[in-house]
Design goal:
It is a single chain. The chain is mainly α. It is built from 14 helices and four strands. Strands 1-4-2-3 form a four-stranded mixed beta sheet. A hairpin with a 2-residue loop joins strand 2 and strand 3. Helix 2 crosses helix 3 and helix 4 runs antiparallel to helix 5. The longest helix is centred in the C-terminal third of the chain and has 29 residues. The chain is globular. The N terminus is likely disordered.
Length: 290
């Protein structure tokens, strides 16, 4: 069902992560198109969670543009993930990092769905060749099903699944590194990402620095001993991105057109940020005079 919608919807990191992020120029073009022509595509939601169109939604909220939502009826989260990934693969036709990641996420959600299908807990929500269910040797093979759906070899789809898990793990441990990987700022192989994801968060930045110097990711047992400076590396790398985002927003946003609620939320978060920065600066000052 499609209807007019104004209240805020729910952001979900997992769904937001599978949506490809455009280059600044493409983002500007999309923003101008929405400002000039309005939001033509409804925002797809499930249980009030945004599934897709995160960019459209953010721009509409930024400029107080009206939009519609389309409620999707899915049995569970895996089904919502599977069909959202399929939508992205077919409509966006992502390449590189996003193609591997979204395909891997699609496969992982499909595998969990099939586990319930094969155990008789639910009906299959997508079309499959009859032999998948009649041939006992293939009936329980998610890779065989994936090959029929994605048209790529079982070895490749299995590797993409491992890659998606690795990228999610990196996003949870070191968000600033995850952002750079999705932006393709550094070419990192699937296997290097998998090795990187297995490291503890405090050692991940050091390993990422190795990649930037074209060295292989050190194995976990070969990682150098803890270096105190590593605790600050992630934050130090992230702050310039915050500064750039703040400057960009200040330059581009017409604050007079922003809703009072949105301004208040931003003001509250900036106050929190300033407070946290002040506490850390005081701690640095004390450390210097210790």
């Amino acid at each position: 069902m499609t209807k007019e919608y104004c209240p805020p919807l729910k952001y979900d990191p997992e769904f937001e992560r599978i949506c490809p992020k455009p280059a600044p120029l493409k983002y500007h073009e999309l923003e101008m198109d929405l400002l000039n022509n309005g939001c033509q595509k409804p925002i797809q939601v499930w249980n009030n969670i945004i599934l897709y169109n995160y960019l459209d939604y953010n721009i509409c909220r930024k400029w107080s543009l009206s939009f519609q939502i389309e409620n999707r009826a899915y049995l569970n989260r895996d089904e919502a993930l599977y069909f959202t990934c399929q939508t992205i693969l077919k409509s966006e036709k992502p390449t590189g990092v996003y193609h591997r990641y979204v395909t891997g996420k699609c496969y992982l959600s499909m595998k969990r769905i099939l586990s319930d299908v094969f155990s008789g807990k639910r009906k299959c929500p997508f079309s499959l060749p009859d032999k998948i269910f009649t041939d006992e040797s293939e009936r329980r093979s998610a890779l065989a099903v994936a090959e029929s759906i994605f048209g790529i070899t079982p070895t490749t789809i299995s590797l993409y699944g491992a890659y998606a898990k690795a990228m999610d793990a990196i996003a949870g441990k070191a968000p600033e590194i995850s952002v750079r990987l999705f932006r393709n700022e550094l070419s990192v192989s699937i296997r290097e990402c998998i090795r990187l994801s297995k490291l503890p968060s405090e050692k991940m930045t050091a390993a990422f620095d190795h990649l930037q110097t074209h060295k292989p990711v050190p194995a976990v047992k070969q990682m150098p001993s803890y270096i105190p400076d590593d605790a600050l590396s992630g934050l130090t790398l992230t702050i310039p991105t915050w500064i750039s985002s703040i400057k960009h927003t200040q330059e581009k946003a017409d604050l007079l057109r922003i809703s009072p609620d949105a301004l208040q939320r931003l003001d509250d978060k900036l106050t929190d940020l300033c407070g946290a920065a002040a506490l850390l600066k005081n701690a640095i000052k004390e450390a210097r005079h210790a």
